[in-house]
């Protein structure tokens, strides 16, 4: 009788790089594109980069073409936020040191194939990470949210279920040979974000509901960025074998 054979599929690996401090508002956005460039050329394998950003308002391409864009930029600077125009679509989104940015890059020979599925998959993964630390989180756009998206992640106040706030926005860039999936989780200190979004959207002439902007610790007061970062890494272990990376090596140090 011949020996039975078992086919074992190789599990994917993902290297997580925890960036200790921001490189600068514009520099952080540019470095994400640099990582994508390295991935598509074979210089970098599947990777996560996690960091706390400088106060930034990332405008979409459509925002930059509106008559009030100059006034919106000025309002951002007055409130201590750097206005930038990102490559991805969508409307203005704000984040600061109380937020966690996650850049997920992977080389792929046909990156466009599962582009929409990634929004659903990683939205579910990140909502699960928030649920693991006690936030009532789910995927789905809420009426009046800033930078609206079908796969935004929102949190719900357990005492007032009708009060839902956007906690995570996601964006994706797909190129020949690889993809970049970026997520921003607002964890702490929501008031400056509401203030700068209110000023920016007013200048742009766009309607939204400021009550939809908030932070995870508006719903769970003890929550901090480090706790959420650890939860995100743990959630990604369901997607891949996560290895610890040394961030300075990405900078050539």
What is the strand and helix layout of this fold?
Elements: E1 13-18, H1 25-40, E2 47-51, E3 56-59, H2 61-64, H3 69-78, E4 82-85, E5 93-95, E6 99-107, H4 115-132, E7 137-139, E8 153-157, E9 160-175, E10 178-186, H5 191-204, H6 216-219, H7 225-236, E11 241-244, H8 247-250
Parallel strand pairs: 1-2, 1-11, 3-4
Antiparallel strand pairs: 2-6, 3-5, 6-10, 7-8, 8-9, 9-10
Helix pairs in contact: 3-5, 4-7
Sum this structure up briefly.
This protein is an alpha/beta fold. Helix content is 32%, strand content 27%. Strand 1, helix 1 and strand 2 form a beta-alpha-beta unit.
Structure description:
The structure is a single chain. The chain is an alpha/beta fold and 253 residues long. The chain has eight helices and eleven strands. The protein has helices at 25-40, 61-64, 69-78, 115-132, 191-204, 216-219, 225-236, 247-250; strands at residues 13-18, 47-51, 56-59, 82-85, 93-95, 99-107, 137-139, 153-157, 160-175, 178-186, 241-244. The strands form two sheets. An eight-stranded mixed β-sheet has the order 7-8-9-10-6-2-1-11, sandwiched between helices. Strands 4-3-5 form a three-stranded mixed β-sheet. A hairpin with a 2-residue loop joins strand 8 and strand 9. Helix 3 (69-78) packs antiparallel against helix 5 and helix 4 (115-132) crosses helix 7 (225-236). The longest helix is centred in the middle third of the chain and has 18 residues, at 115-132. The radius of gyration is 19 Å and the shape is globular. The N and C termini lie far apart (57 Å). Residues 1-8 have low confidence and may be disordered.
